[in-house]
Structure formats: structure tokens, C-alpha cells
Amino acid sequence: MNWYVQAKEAKKSRMKAPGDPEETLCPEVLKEMRQTVAETPDSWNYVTAPDLQKMMKDKRRKPLYLLDVRKPGDFQKGHIEGAENIFWLDLLKPESLKKLPTDRKIVIICYVGHTASQMLFALKTLGYDAVALKFGMGVSPVEGVPVAGWMDYGFDVAKSRS
To answer: E strands, the chain, where?
Structure first.
């Protein structure tokens, strides 16, 4: 049984009776997840839009694999030139994983960076050389909902004592 099937089975068992992850998760999956977290660099595996543009223009570097994980309709409305579209809910399917290169850096692109960071963790855990585009395409996936954080709305923030 491969790790994906084991993880899926573990999730089912957790849904029935949550418990100690050490008991419900496949030990190999948990080990790989911990290793992925431990190997996270200071950049958190993100690349900014200006840095990505520089990387794409650099003729000396190996071509990047641009992976857009947004809905196909949104991808069709506008995407970074050269990007391939695999919807995030389909990304871990065997037929989708077979499309991903193992010899090139994968740049994961989504709406605002949230989904890309989740898919980044999955792909890094599987051993892919991947980064996420910080803040994605900068477009909210929900019509009428702005891309803004807590402080953008002027909500109160607490200050920690040193």
C-alpha cells in the first residue's frame, strides 16, 4: 500500500475517533512530513513575483515548471505565460503527479498564495523541488471579497511584552 492510500486510510480512522497522531498516521508519512518541515529554508520556500520574473528571464538557469493550481476557468481568464494548469483538488491524483517534472523546479501559483502553500507542502513531502509564488496572482478566489488581511481592515492587534 502506498503512502497516499495509507494517509487516506489514516484520515478516515481519525474522522471516526480522533486520537494520537502517532497511532493514527502511517509512521512513514509522519516521518516524511516532519522531515519536510525540518528542511524548510528561511525563505519558507516562497518566491516573490519580481524574483520569479527575474528567474524566468535568466537564460542561464534551467527552465522552471510553472504550475497554476487555480480553477480551469480562472486559469483561462489569465495566467503566467508558459504555466500549466492542474486544479489543486486533482494535483495528488496519480495521473496528475505523472505530469510533474522531477528534474526542474516547480513554481506553484494560485489566487493569493494560500492554496499554493498547501500544495507546496504536499509536493515537498513527496520529494519535488518546489516553491510557491508568494501572494499568488493577487486575485481573490471569491468574487466581491477583497484580498486583505486582518490589519488591512484596521482591526485591533495585541502587542507582546518583551
So the answer is: 46-47, 65-68, 84-85, 106-109, 130-133
Query: What is the band of 24 on the pLDDT scale with cuts at 50, 70, 90?
Result: low
Domains observed in the chain:
46-133 (3.40.250.10)
pLDDT in tens, 34-65: 888 888 878 788 999 999 999 999 999 999 99
DSSP string, 88-125: GGGTTSHHHHTTS-SSS-EEEE-SSSHHHHHHHHHHHH
CB atoms within 10 A of CB 56: 16
Q: Are 33 and 125 in contact (CB under 8 A)?
A: yes
